[in-house]
Amino acid sequence: MAVNNTERRAQERTGRNAGASGLEHDRWPTSLTAIEPNKIQVRGYSLDEMMGRLGFAEAVYLLLMGELPTPTIGRMLNAVLISSIDHGVTPPSTLAARNVATSGAPLKDCVAAGILAFGPHHGGDIESCMRFLDRGLTLVRAGTSMKAAAETIVRECADQHEAPPGFGHRYHIRDPRAARLFQMALELEVEGEHVRLIRAAERALETTYKDRFDRPMPVNVDGAIAAISADLGFEYELGNAIFLISRLPGLIAHAHEERTRMPPMRQIDPKDHDYDGARNRRLPEGRK
Amino acid sequence: MAVNNTERRAQERTGRNAGASGLEHDRWPTSLTAIEPNKIQVRGYSLDEMMGRLGFAEAVYLLLMGELPTPTIGRMLNAVLISSIDHGVTPPSTLAARNVATSGAPLKDCVAAGILAFGPHHGGDIESCMRFLDRGLTLVRAGTSMKAAAETIVRECADQHEAPPGFGHRYHIRDPRAARLFQMALELEVEGEHVRLIRAAERALETTYKDRFDRPMPVNVDGAIAAISADLGFEYELGNAIFLISRLPGLIAHAHEERTRMPPMRQIDPKDHDYDGARNRRLPEGRK
Amino acid sequence: MAVNNTERRAQERTGRNAGASGLEHDRWPTSLTAIEPNKIQVRGYSLDEMMGRLGFAEAVYLLLMGELPTPTIGRMLNAVLISSIDHGVTPPSTLAARNVATSGAPLKDCVAAGILAFGPHHGGDIESCMRFLDRGLTLVRAGTSMKAAAETIVRECADQHEAPPGFGHRYHIRDPRAARLFQMALELEVEGEHVRLIRAAERALETTYKDRFDRPMPVNVDGAIAAISADLGFEYELGNAIFLISRLPGLIAHAHEERTRMPPMRQIDPKDHDYDGARNRRLPEGRK
Amino acid sequence: MAVNNTERRAQERTGRNAGASGLEHDRWPTSLTAIEPNKIQVRGYSLDEMMGRLGFAEAVYLLLMGELPTPTIGRMLNAVLISSIDHGVTPPSTLAARNVATSGAPLKDCVAAGILAFGPHHGGDIESCMRFLDRGLTLVRAGTSMKAAAETIVRECADQHEAPPGFGHRYHIRDPRAARLFQMALELEVEGEHVRLIRAAERALETTYKDRFDRPMPVNVDGAIAAISADLGFEYELGNAIFLISRLPGLIAHAHEERTRMPPMRQIDPKDHDYDGARNRRLPEGRK
Q: How far is B48 from B42, CA to CA, in rounded Å?
């Protein structure tokens, strides 16, 4: 129905003729949160009971997936959400947020503009990678080996001279976020077929297809989030949502820094910046 | 400088004349995240070390405040972020997100539109309440008692026939989220003067000023978040940001439900909905 | 390159390594507007000369297409821009804007949210229809008759049980905006093959394919804008842009009415509204 | 009511208790556009009659103001809308739109982000200037001379070391757009007290207050739009809306240029650009 016309549909449901067509009495369903006086239940759990007993990441999983995560999945999701919390000033989403901030617009406007920059090349990469991996797993289910399936989907991209979604980061030769996510997935035993396939694809890119790209093609953080989110059972669209939740604090922090530390209406040059914050701190040993 | 003109400032810094004015060699600072090849540090801590050792809420605190929270503050912040994660279909932000979703727009567009509806009457209430409480604490620092200061700031609102920011919820006579947040602040011993003042203001509204409003005026969740965020040291603008982070998963969940469960281009009536999800579930005893 | 990774590309161009790769000295081109002290040229024409000598619609054409429109095309474009200037309160874009307005957000936030609701089912329909017509014209260039080509592309949609993009409006059996646009295109002699094809497709829908849809399928205003914009030489993406420019004043008017006439934080029911403005006025005879 | 709480108000109007409070039967008014089958009236005028007989700028005036403009006011408004149609790549709104475009996001997302950058320092200047002028006209109505009133409001800004809103453009010593707008207002005899006051304020800045600012302080285009919009009777908020309508095509043109001409995911440096389009063209003599 993607090509149908709004206003036609819209008008079907308006005033008089809505009454005529009885639509005024239709009711529509929602299964997320039930509100009664002095009582709020999210997916059937009392919100005030959740407070103090769940971590925010676990509550996010409950709201999006409909069930409580196991503590293990909760730990994995916390790590996934932290992995993309910020990546400095240069992502276009961060620059969009800062350009709105320099005009004096309120924080929420800066954040909204930043979110709009999560396009197919940025954030949207996660959904693309989930679909890329599922193409391979369809082959596996048809009897192809994981290795052969990985080589097939990598070759398809190479033949189109495209980097496979979720691979490659010229600045990072080895993306420390992806490496850590895979290590945790292994340790927490939540590694599934999507992670195994993306690792196989990474090996294919390091060997057979090494010469087909002009640079190393390690799995990047988007690829790692995509594979792990898929193994955890998130839908494609919610894979992008995980990145959105993860990066929101970064957008807020940059917009707030721009609004409070820089002069208004400046020209923001993405190159001419220096980091002047704390460096090389270690987490206290006892932590977690 | 609020009234200065954009393009003048913008043009000062462009092409040729920027070169002429030497601006091409200016550099600008950021203190949030340092990026080097294969190395990412957030506020000086290695991002991959944070993964698995911090909860997402703790990482949010680190990014926004610049320092690690104590485990106690981490627990408090998790509860604050959970408290506003969703409030059903009727908030204008949720309806804005659903109206964008029904047009077939991508998830991020729905979320951005929802965030734009965090106006002065919605979400922005938190900053207003933080400022309201600080007016009272200024009196306290000048020697007024907490009780008298609370009565003064409440009277100022009553005289303007305005509900004090962070008070009143006709649907909830006793907001279960606020009650739980105050209980936790007490138990975790993070309760500070902002919480004490808002409780004093609540008492003033239940007694002296009871007849000045047409309904009960308990502290609502915005007020509780405002008082606790202020006691935790968040700036006004970041108080609103806490609400923004908290509600984002709710916007995502509603936009996703609209996109996956409802027909496109429907007329969304905020009244004619029914909850058809799980009810009255209990968290497993062992949980946290 | 649709699947490549943001931050990799972003980082390629940052600080130090940008310097290393010489990118700091790259310059990038724009061909829209040249700014010099006391001198502004849009597409090579002095902006202050344009003021008073061009209509806004003609200036829009110049900026987007790079050349001045003929006075005839200017008249056609004025009619196209007026045709979708508003369609009452029920389009999702209007409801998104009003839901943001009721939160007390500034006018620009309401407008931005409304624009985000120009999804594939709303506004985006114009690009879909332009592509639909070009599929048919490809057949015509290959020797198929206009009539046969129209029947082919209509059948393709009917076989997928989809309304052809730009057709059908259950509320309007005959869209007065489309009819007027086609009449003007004929009178102004700007009617081209896209308009001829869409009229042929409309005839096919009224005859051969009448029974394939549950309602009349006249060309709607999106279809008329699509065909005329294509005949005027607008790119697909700019076809949607024409709708965006046309509807912006409608979004502004509804957001402003919501902000100035209605109580804040109301629940906006798309059905329960009544029109209470002026009715049945006639343009003065002398007008244009 | 600015400090009231959303969800309280929202909940008042929901499901059951809305029914209970009878709100389900409330109807709400709109006076913009009346929709009936095959009939659309904007402010009481048939939309299809308007097409071909009004220019788009005149239809905008009708929709926002409720009445047809005189042909003279229509000409003035066309010039106002053209005056800010684009100002090159450096305004923050344009950079926000381009940063969203480079992520591969759709055109409408780029435009929405650009609109969010119309903050208090950019676009919002128009409302500030309208209020600034009305402070002066209040003095005039109290018997102060135009000259003395202008000196008073200029001095108030100078004493706060702020540029008066609508004045100053370091890049343009004499803003050609403002000069042309004032010339037209004079010729078309729509010049009113707001224009006379802003000219008086400009003279005060050139003489008495010359030494109070570090650069010339001519009226800029925002100031000219503010004064003329106020003389035409637009409300403050609609003054900003005029700028929004005027600049939208510029945002579209830059987003489209970025999407079609530049590589994706580039770092956009506002300084390192060159204009490579047409130059120094003249409008045909016969034009208008």
A: 10
